[in-house]
Specification:
This protein is of the alpha/beta class. Among the domains are: 26-200, Rossmann fold, CATH 3.40.50.980; 381-452, Luciferase, domain 3, CATH 2.30.38; 457-554, GMP Synthetase, Chain A, domain 3 (2-Layer Sandwich), CATH 3.30.300. It is 30% helix and 22% strand. It contains 16 helices and 25 strands. The strands form 6 sheets. The protein has an 8-stranded mixed β-sheet, sandwiched between helices. α1 (26-37) crosses α9, α4 crosses α5 and α8 packs across α9 (259-272). The radius of gyration is 23 Å and the shape is globular. 50% of the residues are buried.
């Protein structure tokens, strides 16, 4: 049964909650938008604009290049890319060829990238000739079953003058390509007529994207998202925007490899025929300048991003008059931050909620309607929510009490890649996705997350798993016990902090342990401090007690 609340009759989004989203593939969605928009700009990359038809030609050439290499149905194509035009061409080109895309974070270490390449069975990997990316990709090419690299040039996507300056001034940031038959330039891959063989796609069953998430344990698992999951979520998000037919210009600073941006920036904007003003990474000064230059109408982001914009000295010089709405996700939005951003910009800022397993978005506060600070708003159309007992998910939560939030809808994944045991843990017997978050639903149908069953730490929109950091700590000979918690941080929401005890005979400071640990971690995983203690709290059966330590730290 559903939550008991009827969104059919108490819905504050400007559309019906009870509606259907017919099966639709991502290539078909793109084709429809190209037919509708033609030469209208789809992408703005540092001032260089690419029209819908121009992007479609690039997509066709990627598809043909992949098919010429025997890749198609059943192939996993990896994207180890920042927000660059190559990402869009590779993403939709791989899908047009019938392949499945696998997203990889450019922040990954070689070991992290290799583990997910092996797990997914990725055959070919797109990356860039940047020193931050290519050396990692080459290590994985040599150390895994990966067969081929396709390497693009950032300068190739820039306007002429900027391209020349990039080549002249940033040579240290460009890595040389080895003379290796397994490594192909992106320009060589697309040196064809774009006459690829169209592939029959079953939107509801064919997997478009394998998106990795740590789940509750920190062990990476690939969420299998179908074409229908992704196009339905794009349509759901589009339908709750009362002005989605207006001139649509999205500031694309969220990374496309993250599921939030994949839906709310990439797919949703292309569905709507809008323009993405894309930046390869978030820089507050550059984001403010791009917002003003492109007259952006929407800015999806995470709380830390909005805080950085508020803190930048260029804020007062920026014209925000075009900006209609900002949707915040990835981490809880402090009400004080929301109020300050709205006052400074005049734009609506609404908080939403989603998971990798839900293609990105489950619910959001209304863009134009009652916004309840501290809630995740109401569910998207066709999204069913329910509260179940925290101990037994086959029972409803007791009336009036918090329960674990479970979800059904067209955006919910098919399951985890090669992880049937994880599927059993993540879905109820009757097919509801367990979020691991404890929530309440108020009398107006707004959902508030009050606790979480997961130990995950939300660092500026990125998920960090304590067990990963703890495993590294245990590799140090001085560390006897370790617990990692999320502690409040004014900028990123929360950050990891480690607590350790030492083996007998060892004397190591917290500063020294942090200096040893952090270089082994991704930037968002790095601990704010390591606190050395004589002992750590334990349960009655002798297990380390994370809950008790969290209470101590909170006090």
């Amino acid at each position: 049964m559903d939550s008991g609340f009827s969104w059919s009759t108490n819905y504050n989004h400007p559309t019906l909650w009870d509606q259907d989203f017919p099966p639709l593939s991502l290539p078909a969605m793109l084709t429809a938008s190209v037919a509708k928009r033609g030469d209208a700009p789809m992408l703005d990359f540092m001032g260089r604009r690419f029209g819908y038809e121009e992007v479609a030609r690039g997509v066709a050439r990627v598809a043909r290049g992949l098919q010429d290499r025997g890749l198609g149905k059943g192939t996993r194509v990896g994207l180890f890319l920042p927000n660059v035009p190559h990402y869009v061409a590779a993403y939709y080109g791989a899908l047009a060829a019938g392949a499945t895309v696998v997203n990889f974070s450019p922040l990954y270490t070689p070991a992290e990238l290799e583990a997910q390449v092996e797990d997914s069975g990725t055959d070919i990997l797109f990356t860039m000739s940047a020193t931050a990316l290519l050396p990692t990709a080459l290590k994985v090419l040599d150390g895994s079953s990966l067969k081929h690299l396709i390497v693009g040039s950032v300068a190739g996507g820039l306007p002429g003058a900027k391209s020349l300056l990039y080549r002249m001034l940033r040579r240290k940031e460009v890595a040389a390509l080895p003379d290796d038959p397994r490594v192909t330039r992106f320009s060589a891959l697309v040196a064809n007529d774009g006459d690829y063989e169209p592939v029959a796609i079953d939107p509801e069953n064919d997997i478009a994207l394998i998106q990795y998430t740590g789940g509750t344990t920190g062990t990476p698992k690939g969420a299998m998202l179908t074409h229908q999951n992704l196009t339905a979520n794009a349509r759901q998000v589009n339908s709750i925007d009362p002005d989605h037919d207006a001139d649509d210009r999205i500031l694309g600073v969220l990374p496309f490899f993250h599921v939030f941006a994949n839906t709310c920036v990439l797919n949703r904007t292309i569905l709507n025929g809008g323009m993405i003003a894309m930046l390869p990474r978030f820089d507050a000064k550059q984001a403010l300048a791009t917002l003003g230059r492109t007259r952006a109408t929407a800015l999806p982001g995470v709380p830390t991003m909005y805080q950085a914009l508020l803190d930048h000295p260029d804020l007062g010089k920026t014209d925000f008059s075009s900006l209609r709405v900002c949707i915040s996700g990835g981490a809880p939005m402090p009400s004080e931050l929301r109020e300050k951003f709205v006052a400074a910009t005049g734009a609506a800022l609404v908080e939403g909620y989603g998971l990798t397993e839900s293609s990105g978005v489950v619910s959001t506060n209304p863009y134009a309607g009652p916004v309840k600070a501290g809630t995740i708003g109401q569910p998207l159309p066709a999204t069913h929510l329910r509260l179940v007992d925290k101990e037994d998910p086959m029972k409803d939560a007791p009336a009036g009490e918090p329960g674990e939030l479970v979800v059904k809808g067209p955006q919910i994944m098919r399951g985890y890649w090669n992880r049937p045991e994880a599927d059993r843990d993540s879905f109820t017997d009757d097919g509801w996705l367990r979020t691991g978050d404890v929530a309440v639903i108020d009398a107006d149908g707004y959902v508030r997350i009050v606790d979480r069953l997961k130990d995950m730490i939300a660092v500026g929109g990125f998920k960090v798993y304590p067990s990963v950091i703890e495993a590294h700590l245990y590799e140090h000979p001085a560390v006897k016990e370790a617990i990692v918690l999320g502690v409040p941080d004014a900028y990123r929401g929360e950050v990891p902090k480690a607590f350790v005890t030492l083996e007998d005979g060892f004397d190591a400071s917290g500063e020294a342990l942090a200096a040893w640990l952090n270089p082994q971690l991704g930037k968002h995983e790095r601990v704010s401090a390591v606190e050395v203690r004589l002992n750590l709290p334990k349960t009655m059966i002798g297990k380390l007690d994370r809950k008790a330590l969290r209470a101590e730290e909170g006090a």
